[in-house]
Amino acid sequence: MNQTQQSHCLDPDDFGILLKILNEKGYLTVGPTRRDGAILYDVLESMYDLPIGWTDEQEAGIYRLKRRDDNALFGYNVGPHSWKKYLFPSKTKLWSATKKGAGFEIDGEADAPPTYAFIGVRACELHAIQVQDKVFMGGIFQDPIYTGRRQDCLIVAVNCTQAAKTCFCTSMQTGPKVNDGYDLVLTEIIDEARHYFVIESGSDVGADILKELTTSPAEQDDFQAAATHIENAKKQMGRTVDMTDIKDVLYHNYDNKRWEELEKRCLACGNCTMACPTCFCSNVEDVTDLTGEHAERWRTWDSCFTMDFSNIHGGSIRASIGSRYRQWLMHKLATWIDQFGSSGCVGCGRCIAWCPVGIDLTEEVKAISDSEEGDRNGTHQDN
Amino acid sequence: MNKINQKPKLAVWKFASCDGCQLSLLDCEDELLALADEIEIANFPEASRAFIPGPYDLSLVEGSITTPEDKERIQDVRRQSKYLVTIGACATAGGIQALRNLKDVKEFIDIVYAHPDYINTLATSSAIADHVLVDFELRGCPINKRQLLEVITAFLHGRKPNISRYSVCIECKRRGMACLTVTQGAPCLGPVTQAGCGAICPAYNRGCYGCFGPTETPNTESLANWLLDKGMITDDLVRLFRTYNAQSSAFKKESDRHE
Ligand code: SF4
Ligand code: SF4
Ligand code: SF4
User: How many whole angstroms from B182 Cα to the centroid of ligand 3?
Assistant: First the structure.
């Protein structure tokens, strides 16, 4: 085992010490906390800000918090927030300027963002961060806001030991076990005898932090227990998507009747895109004050479900709601592959749970591929 | 001509309304002086008795048309105004008072007034755009003062106002709130209501009441089906759509469909 990869056991009562160490090193610790009937991401001042002893139950369009019968620190799955809240904030002032003579002067530099330590990042979420890394930092142009927040950010990941009914990371090969891209990863083990974490480091920074914690060495039994717990999440996986030839299947079905059904059901409210951890679209808007002396340029999250999103000379090119849903689904699962070399969906299920009318993309994909099969059989018979 | 005389003239007009939207203009306390520097407030009875005759560069119209006199008066306002912007749910959709459109007004008058013959009112409350050409409709009950300033600023600088027509949900999610419909099954009109308020009600644990009227492409039918399916009774559904924007075409169609 090299210096970077160290494995230990950590007592849950000592989790607070980890947060303390991170704070002392200058990190702003952010992670899951219970608020407004959900588990949201916010600043964690102590381990007691975590939703200890709580869990969530999720279905299409439904999310409910429930008490657990233990004191698990991470006994739930993903909620409405994702880490893009910090890396790609929903509203950012890009710059502002004041009129000066015939020209204008750009007002002072924006404040430097804090150095974040993300606590409790799940496997699908790490993949989502990697997807956005590619979007914002992978091309010729790098987004300075994203890069500035991402480069020194520390990731404390958590392996899922249970899955929500809306989860399908196994289909997307993004979880439930964390594979890379973390500084520390924890597996929370709760059985009759014990409640503890197996904690492993994945970077030098992580290994150094681990050294400062009071831990005991992890044994074979502990790894076995961790593997069994992660296996449990796989077994509970609520949904699946058949990803075989997904790109071709969707490309063939530009005119599928199913889009008309979605035209009837989808509200074009944009909740799915706002909740999705990979959706990256934004709108840039200039505002002036009454005098016209001062102007500001703001970037806000945008959604392909709005009319303005595809508004070009003469009007919106996606006037129907069905065409907007199709654009979204096609991008997530098909055109994203051509554009960025991976799927734009990581199987977190947020768009399913947070759709106010419970539209489920896994169901939609299935309906489309099933009809495709029908078509194929039909063609076959004709020949 | 000095600078004072070159300032565009603003007039504020009141029709059937509660004055709440005009109040949003007075509520622009910090900006009011800057506004007075840029624009000549030529007629704004709620703020001042001073009156400067028309024509006006910009007219803000609050309230709906409910009387024969007002039906005439709005024509006169239009004739005197280069740009006419309606402010609020009353002026853009008839307001809460448009609930009268569903009933027999004469019957109300007979019950309420000692001398019904003194009352001269129309059978309906209607939007300003039903009577005259409107250059821009600013939604809300009441309107949002930021949006009002944006409309006035855009007018002053000859550009299009940045007023989005997408859903309240987008503002709700940008604020990082957990959706009430999903976490509690609360009826919320957010998905079919135009943004602008900043999702105030969801932030105070109340479903959206639809104050800003329907979105650009409101799918009220799907939302209604979902709510009924989740156990909402038809009467409540009808009431949900029949408030401040009851007569806006999408909300009206939906409530009528369930009656
Ligand atoms: S498309 Fe849906 S399931 Fe996939 S990553 Fe986005 S929110 Fe998660
Ligand atoms: S799929 Fe659902 S969440 Fe997304 S825009 Fe349509 S109704 Fe809204
Ligand atoms: S609470 Fe209302 S406005 Fe907010 S996301 Fe849910 S449905 Fe939309």
Answer: 8
Measured CA to CA, the distance from residue B39 to residue B52 in angstroms comes to 13
Reference A187, options A10, A38, A3; nearest CA is A10
**Structure confidence by residue, pLDDT tens digits, B56-82:** 999 999 999 999 999 999 999 999 999
Per domain, the residue ranges of chain B are: 3-156, 168-258
Q: Which helix (H) or strand (E) holds A311?
A: strand A311-312
The CATH number that domain B3-156 falls under is: 3.40.50.700
CA of A265 to the centre of ligand 3 (A): 17
Closest residue in A to B170 (Cα) is A270
Asked whether A24 and A216 are in contact (CB, 8 A), the reply is: no
Q: What is the pLDDT of residues A73-95, one digit of tens each?
A: 999 999 999 999 999 999 999 99
Nearest by CB: A307 against B37, B38, B216 = B216
CA distance A288 to chain B (A): 7
Q: Which residues contact A140 (CB under 8 A, 6 or more apart)?
A: none
Residue B191 CB less than 6 A away from ligand 3? yes
- Inter-chain touch B190–A90, beta carbons under 8 Å: no
| Burial bucket for residue A53 (CB in 10 Å: 0-12, 13-18, 19+) | middle
CA distance A230 to A188: 9
What ipTM is given for this predicted complex? 0.94
